[in-house]
Amino acid sequence: MRIISRKTLKGFWENHPDAEQPLKAWFQEAEKSDWRSFNDLKTQFKTASLVGNDRVVFNIKGNS
Q1: Is the distance from CB of 62 to CB of 54 less than 8 angstroms?
Q2: Which residues pair with 28 in a beta bridge?
Q3: Phi and psi at residue 57, in whole multiples of 5°?
Q4: Chain segment 29-41, per-residue pLDDT in tens
Q5: Digit-coded pLDDT (tens) for 3-58
Q6: CA-CA distance, 62 to 37, in Å (whole number)?
Q7: What is the C-alpha to C-alpha distance for residues 30 and 52, in angstroms, rounded to an integer?
């Protein structure tokens, strides 16, 4: 998996401190994952959505 910008995640959690731990946990899981298909990803992250062009939206922290 390619995470576009960890800096963007950090900037977000600096403005929303309650999101820091959920984002860090997601980042660690995503970074070490080796998904071969969207179905593999959905097994781990049930609320993820495919948005086209090999891009996925993850609902982090209950999407709040």
Answers
A1: no
A2: none
A3: -105, 130
A4: 988 888 899 999 9
A5: 778 898 899 999 999 999 999 999 999 888 888 999 999 999 999 999 988 788 88
A6: 23
A7: 18
Q: Assign residue 13 a region: left if phi > 0, alpha if psi is -120 to 50, beta otherwise?
A: alpha
Contact (Cβ atoms closer than 8 angstroms) between residue 50 and residue 56: yes
- For residue 34, which phi and psi values (nearest 5 degrees)? -130, 65
Q: How is residue 33 written in tokens?
A: 């994952």
**Predicted pLDDT of residue 60:** 86
**Amino acid of residue 39:** N
- What is the Cα–Cα distance from 63 to 48, expressed in whole angstroms? 10
Please tell me the distance from the alpha carbon of residue 23 to that of residue 10, in angstroms, as a whole number: 9
For helices 6-15 and 20-32, give the axis angle rounded to 10 degrees.
Answer: 160
